[in-house]
Specification:
Layout: E1 2-8, H1 11-20, E2 27-33, H2 36-45, E3 50-54, H3 60-72, E4 77-81, H4 87-95, E5 100-102, H5 108-119, E6 124-125, H6 127-143, H7 155-165, H8 170-177, H9 181-195, H10 200-209
Parallel strand pairs: 1-2, 1-3, 3-4, 4-5, 5-6
Helix pairs in contact: 7-9, 8-9
Length: 215
């Protein structure tokens, strides 16, 4: 059973969110409040797996509340719901420790899926938030000075990087190119050495930045 806490400074929306979970399987609302002090005290008495916070204003009260929750209850994962889905609000929530963010385009099924995903140890963002974060990343990498030279890669290395960046496994790449898995791994190691990359994530970033793979 997933134990939920709901915090919303407006009682009417608080009751509405709680009502959504009444018929949900394997989920139980054990804490609901519209007062910050009641929330913190309630978390001490009845620990929850996921705390859902419906944020109306991203002010100092929100920041302070998130800080208190993060420091006092590190095992509690926070899911933010807000109609404010601008970049500043989203980034402020993530920096404060939120593991998920649902915006105004959220449905009941999205909310339930977010709870299940976060409980499984992953993060969850609604479609509009995911797009916002992706655009932010693309803007960042386009503004960075790219000192890595794609010309140093062979045609086969570029081909392997593209296939790997498009989620093909080493075995799938090997089968499609009629080479061994060890050869694929060797090519990937050479790519990382040539480009001075340290992780697979760095290789994906390079591939995106140089239009080797499509988003």
């Amino acid at each position: 059973m997933i134990r939920l806490g709901i915090y919303d400074e407006m009682k009417i929306t608080l009751e509405g969110i709680c009502e959504l979970f009444n018929s949900a399987d394997e989920m139980e609302v054990v804490l609901q409040t519209h007062l910050p002090e009641e929330l913190l005290e309630g978390l001490k008495q009845d620990p929850v797996h996921i705390l859902i916070i419906n944020v109306h204003t991203f002010d100092s009260q929100f920041t302070g509340l998130m800080l208190n929750v993060s420091l006092s209850f590190p095992k509690t994962r926070v899911l933010i719901i807000s109609a404010n889905n601008d970049e500043e609000s989203v980034m402020k929530s993530i920096k404060a420790g939120a593991k998920g963010f649902l915006s105004r385009d959220t449905s009941r099924s999205d909310l339930l899926q977010a709870v299940l995903t976060i409980r499984s140890g992953h993060e969850y963002f609604s479609n509009s938030i995911t797009l916002l974060l992706l655009n932010k990343y693309i803007k960042k990498i386009k503004s960075d000075d790219d000192r890595l030279d794609i010309k140093s890669l062979s045609t086969r290395e570029v081909e392997i990087m593209k296939m790997w960046g498009n989620s093909n496994t080493n075995k799938e790449i090997a089968d499609k190119l009629f080479i061994s898995v060890r050869t694929v791994e060797t090519h990937k190691n050479h790519i990382m050495q040539k480009l001075n990359l340290k992780t697979s994530v760095d290789m994906v970033k390079f591939a995106i930045r140089n239009n080797i793979i499509d988003l």
